[in-house]
Amino acid sequence: MVVAIAVVVVLPLSFVVLSLLSPSFDVWSQLWRTRLPTMVLTTFGLVVMVAAGTLIVGGGLAWLVTAYKFPGRRLLSWLLVLPLAMPGYVLGFVFLSLAGYTGPLQRGWRGALGTDAWFPEVRSVWAAALVLTLVLYPYVYLLARVAFRETAASAYDVARSLGCTPWRAFCRGVFPLARPALAAGLALVMMETLTDFATVQYFGVETLSTGIYQVWRGMYDRDAAAELAGLVLLFALGVIVAERSLRGRARYAEPGSGGARIELQHLRGWRGWVATATASTVLAAAFAAPVTQLAVWAAGDGRAARSFERIGTYLANSVMLAVVTAVFVVGLGVVIANASRFSDNRVLRAATRISIAGYAVPAPVVAIGVLLLIAALDALLRSLGIRVSGLLVTGSVAAVLYGYTVRFLALGVTSVEASMAKVPDEITQSARSLGASSTRIITRLHVPLSRAGIATAAMLVAIEAMKELPIVLLLRPFGFDTLSVWVWQLAAESLWEEAALPALIIVAVSVLPVAVLSGQLARGEHEPVSGRSGAPDVAPAAAVRVEELVS
Amino acid sequence: MTSPTDRGDPAVVTAEPSALEVRDLGKRYGDTRAVDGIGFDLAAHEILCLVGPSGCGKSTVLRMLAGLVTPDVGEVVLAGRTVDGPKAHVAPERRGVGIVFQEHALFPNLTVNANVGFGLAGVGRAARGARVTEMLALVALEAYADRYPHELSGGERQRVALARALAPAPSVLLLDEPFASLDQNLRVQVRDQVVSVLRDTGTPAVFVTHDQGEALALGDRILVLRRGQVAQLGTPQTIFHSPVDRFVAAFMGEADFLPARVVGAVVATELGERPSPDAAPNRSVEMVIRPDDVTFDESPTGSAVVEGVEFQGSSTLYRLRLASGAVVRSRRAHTEVALVGTRVTARFSNHHRPPVLIPASDSPGVRGAAQGPPEAAGVGISTDRSRNAPS
Fold first, then answer.
1. How confident is the model at residue A151 (pLDDT cuts 50, 70, 90)?
2. Residue A541 pLDDT level (bands cut at 50, 70, 90)
3. What are the tens digits of pLDDT across the range B123-171?
4. Where residue B305 sits, what CATH number does that domain have?
5. Interface test with B, best of A433, A439, A444, A454 (most B CBs within 10 A)
6. Cα dist from B297 to B1, B208, B306, B347, whole Å
7. Is residue B130 in a domain?
């Protein structure tokens, strides 16, 4: 069963790998002559910029709230997680509207300095990197905060007692210990950057992922899309290798006993207010300002209301996809998480690891893999003389669901596993000795005992699926729009007011898991972070596992 | 190598067929041989204690018997049926073996009733109800049938776990440190209850414990494990009075060792002579010296020195360095206390227990010193036995 699931998950990825291993010279020379070199360079540059940006913003803010006392520290320390709820493709268009040529920022600037005053180009890779940094820094922030608090406190104290200033104590004592956590956070950020093509397209930035989209949706050139997806996969592998080497020989930060905490350094007077202002500015730029702008638009002159009736349809599509995906993923998650309880078979263990590989694979790669698989299936059926609707190849709801399952299975498996971990092995073993079948143990004991965790997992998956854009954009059938697709289309045409309401709905829904997470962080600071929808927990683990597969 | 078992022991001789036969059981984890060539028989109605220091493999043995861990080699025959062997591995749910864990592992979402009835899935409703009632009566918990596990005390939970494991009438009951999670006062009480239930139902049982006192009190026989191998198998009396080596002697109770020579009818040691248990002439052996065997008199010309004094309440434990440099411990109930540095004359106490002899240890530098094998070092002197380390 688990082996079958693993095969189903890996099949689309293997098609991408296959196409990479059997490169078509024509396709490559075509790609090379057009935009490939620029795309590779841009992708690389973007990934590096976003990684550097999130390291500075996320790591810096984490250290600020961990080691210093300033006005509003407590509130800010958890509000700073909120941008996790802001999808890049939403912040992207709000940013454009505010900072674009006609936006209030530029107008104010020119009003102050004259019409010819220089203003940085908004539709640029720099701006795209800034927007991605603002939405992705919480990954680094969260992991760094936990690491600083739990792992590094004693090192900091020792360094201080040996006469280091706070800053030197950070550099010498804390940073080396927090490095594995920072590396994990950065790996997540880079993966998300590779996945994104919706946001960067607003900015006219051409990465490999946007290339995949254009080649496929624009020209239906499956071969070229497949080769590009292979390249993205190589980038993802690069990220995993980089993470591994950054992490060094250290393992992920073990949550400590939580006893030792860094003694807060009080920032008095203006210093304190500078700290407050810095943190608030980031929060405002990444969350408060865009949400306010969206609310103003949505409540505004009625243009938003015109799209009201269509929201119903798209919302229904989104919810349907989210619910079905959640049921699928959690169902499979329960099976996979339980299987290891009943067998210590090596094949099974490997299969479990493989089944969650999807999270470490950028979304466009998953999507193209599913496309290739369906095309192959279609060809097979045709050769057998069975005619299926020709639309199968160009996309179907089933394909979207397949892609989602591959992508989010890790989330389901690890969330269910985490709650299953609270069911002691002895419970299972006692039940087995009493003659109960595995089905009976799962239904009578495991599921009832991990109900809360399973419900949380379902919620997390549903919300992720609702926000998801790249896979649904690539795989959806014509005429099938979801809330996220609609937001993106409206925003791409600069119909910002219309996009506001659906965008707000997505943000509102996404705030839910972030609130849950913040609650967890506030309650037990030493509980392991489960991240945005558990992602910080999940993705590095998935990344490591993929690497094990590859090597 | 022949395992030092004593099948000729009177307690083991029985006409009934074995409830459990274990042959040459082995399990490796990586390069570690967790269990290496374990073999024993369990007679019907017999209680066997598996005892050994942490990490000796005793829990692994138990899990293999339950089918939860698949052995690499060896055979397990349960009531005449081979459940593990070269070609067989019967899943735990098909073995008919009951298991009771240290943490009880009651199903927290089910009532006591449903917990005890869990293993009776194939039984009709009426018969199941009757069996559950019978089991709860056995452990004197009829009044608690509708409670949930969290509404019970530790001892009550343990009894529910026992009733649950016994309900399907298992051919063998396995108990993994079943009393370790109970506090000291409760432990003896629950232990007696459990043993009497086992005797009443005639269920053969294998206990795992790291507590030698518990093993001596509970077991019809004791199997001492050391690094996954059988160190000794025998009745509690045999194990305590005729340990085969330093390890067993030191593990089963506080022990020091002195070189000794059997000369005719006596055994001679630095502390004096004792009557020899078996008159084998001129044999080099070691004598196991328990603190109760040694006493001393203060004497300015004495050849021994008090090196350590540990007040233990009703008695005092002394560490004495003898003239040869060997150290032995002595327990005295006297009210007057000898101080460290006092010169004394050490001698055997005037009790009539026969001396315990083991083959002479040939390792250098251990002559007479209370060192023993590494695992056993400190076990004898320690009053605080580690409870948290699983084996």
1. low
2. very low
3. 888 999 999 999 999 888 999 999 999 999 888 998 999 999 999 999 9
4. 2.40.50.140
5. A433
6. 45, 42, 11, 8
7. no
Please indicate whether, in this complex, the C-beta atoms of A435 and B98 are within 8 angstroms of each other.
no
* Cβ neighbours of B71 in A, within 8 Å: none
**Both B229 and B343 in a single domain?**
no
B-chain CB neighbours of A437 within 8 Å are 93
User: Do B317 and B196 belong together in one domain?
Assistant: no
Helix, strand, coil fractions of chain A, as percent rounded to 5: 80, 0, 20
Claim to verify: residue B90 and residue B181 sit in the same structural domain: yes
Q: What is the DSSP letter of B261?
A: E
8-state DSSP, A344:
-
Within a domain: B117: no
Give counts: helices (H), strands (E), chain B: 8, 20
| Residue whose token pair is 């098909």 | B94
Interface of A with B (CB under 8 A): 344, 424, 426-427, 429-437, 440, 444-445, 448-449
- Please give, rounded to a whole number of angstroms, the shortest distance from the CA of B188 to a CA of chain A: 24
Question: Strand B294-298 and strand B266-269: pairing?
Answer: unpaired
Give the gap in angstroms from C-alpha B100 to the nearest C-alpha of chain A: 7
Sheet holding B97-100, edge to edge: B97-100, B172-176, B205-209, B47-51, B221-226, B229-234
In the block, residue with structure tokens 């002691």? A424
d(CA A457, CA A525): 21
Per CATH, the number for A2-550 is 1.10.3720.10
Specify whether the CB–CB gap between B175 and B100 falls below 8 A. Answer: yes
Report the CATH number that the domain containing residue B234 is assigned in CATH.
Answer: 3.40.50.300
Q: What is the DSSP annotation of A222-282? A: HHHHHHHHHHHHHHHHHHHHHHHHHHTT--SPPP--S---PPPEE--HHHHHHHHHHHHHH
Question: Are residues B260 and B344 part of one domain?
Answer: yes
Rg, Å, chain A Cα set: 24
The closest of A530, A439, A490, A508 to A87, measured between CA atoms, is A508
Residue A81 contacts residue A93 (beta carbons within 8 Å): no
Based on the fold, state whether residues B14 and B67 are members of the same structural domain. yes
Mean of all residue pLDDT scores within chain A:
80
The reply to whether B67 and B186 lie within a common domain is yes
> What is the number of domains present in chain B?
2
Chain segment A61-76, per-residue pLDDT in tens: 998 988 888 998 888 9
Among all residues of chain A, which has the CA nearest to that of B102? A426
Give the integer Cα–Cα distance in Å for A414 and A530. Answer: 10
Residue range(s) defining the domain that contains residue B32: 10-96+170-241
The Cα of B68 is separated from the nearest Cα of chain A by a number of Å equal to: 7
Q: Is residue B51 situated within a structural domain? A: yes
B214, part of any domain: yes
